[in-house]
Design a protein that fits this description.
mainly alpha, globular
Amino acid sequence: LIVEVLAPIALANFEVALAEECLDVWMAQDAANPKPRLLKADILQRVGAKQQAYDLYEEVLKLDPNNVE
């Protein structure tokens, strides 16, 4: 629960490294949840890691095919 709360706060404060760390923990703890993958893909896309972002977006669609985000 802590990483679920801390990740968006870190993103809002432009603390990318902390946000990524929280999202990695969140993904490991809740493998079926597409939300942390979506947030991390957004970070990766913004920093220019487009292929990694694309891979995470694909995972999001596999977990939640109806996700319009």
